[in-house]
Amino acid sequence: MTNYDEYESPLAHRYASREIKKIFSPRERASTWRKLWLWLAEAEQALGLNQITDKALQGLRSNLIVSDEAFQVIAKEEQIRRHDVMSHIFALEKDVPDAAGIIHIGATSCYAESTFLHNLLQVTDNADLIFMRDALRLILPKLAKVIHNLSRFALKFKDLPTLAFTHYQAAQPISLGRRAAQWAQDLAMDLEDIEYVLAGLKFRGAQGTTGSQASFMEIFHRDTAKIDELNKILCEKAGFEACYDISTQTYTRKVDLRIANALSAFGASAIRIATDIRHLAHDKILDEPHEATQTGSSAMAFKSNPMRSERICSLGRKLSTINTNFSATFSSQWLERTLDDSAIRRMDIPEMFLLTDALLILLDDVTNGIVVFPAMIRSQLQQELPFMATENIIMKLVHKGVSRQEAHERIRVLSRETVEAMKTEGAKNDLIERIKKDDFFRPIWDELDGMLDPKLFIGRSAEIVEKYCEGPLRVQLEKYKDYIDSTATATLAV
To answer: Is-catalytic flag, 297?
Structure first.
């Protein structure tokens, strides 16, 4: 049987990067478990456990990377034991006979049971915390680069007037850069949230089977200072500042939920941005990048669809709702732990990061290559600009001594006539021409053309963009500058 005969997740196969897939790969997972067992053994030896020999530690150090042969042993043993961690311990003891009997002392399967090293440390939970930390560190600079792309775009088009839309109806113009700055700000909020959950991430450490550290009290003869030192050493080895103050058999699944909430919010932002781009592509205002050989439709050869933005919306839909699974898992835990969290976390933890990574690849590609069509922007704007100018026209008339109510009524009638012609005859917007033919408006005829400069209608858009992108946003992205400057735009696998 080949890979073509078995299902493969398209998320991993088509969309996510090699770097994120490596973090959640079976070999990385199994090898990290072995590192955790080694770290526990080293720490316990340093704190006086004479059962742990130098020879055993050297054997563990020499077998940290799980071999293909070991995976075969693990698969066979799990069929017998129905316990994945026990199967990995069996395979490790086979690779390192000198370590048999000391692996997993005081650890449960959630550190990294039949052996001395296993009974307390919770190998799977500690490993998951390492994977999520490493994955968060991987995605943060990628997100910063996307924000930088949008900031650069916003500054470039900070004063290019474009029609705004509220209720998806024409509204007072803004600048194209101002719209992009809004996208950048949404993602900047996501960056803040993800940085926050990363900064607050801690280790579970060695807490015992239900979080009381009772087994370690036995191992260290009730020397609580040694237990505290054990966790300090483990945190240093794993690269965490501290352990969670309270754990049960697992670290609280609230941790997973907090991370999922931040990533789901990013998924919502991605959909928001891509949906805007899809609408604007429909209006031929702008477009996402396209390869010369890209095919839009198998039937309609003329089409050039925004497939990247559509894919962003598709993957974002999955990510933006994945936090509901983590919420259900957290709320469904009974007392000190139930195992109904296990299977769904095996799927959802890697998937939420692969989804985030895939979206960032797409967003980097799109935001770095947005194509703008100024002529179409002007054309769309001119269709609506006469209506936008009517308030200023009324005010000009008032300054000339004309009744505001009468001016308003005249404008209302002419506007309705113009809209009717546009809708029923496909006519252009000729409101200004109608005004120029109406003697009522004679006092301002010579001022009308000057009132139609689009830049008169975008307020402080350019200033707002400069103030934000050159100010707080630049400061926020400063820590990622080296990555942004040295990293090429992401390329799509398909």
So the answer is: yes
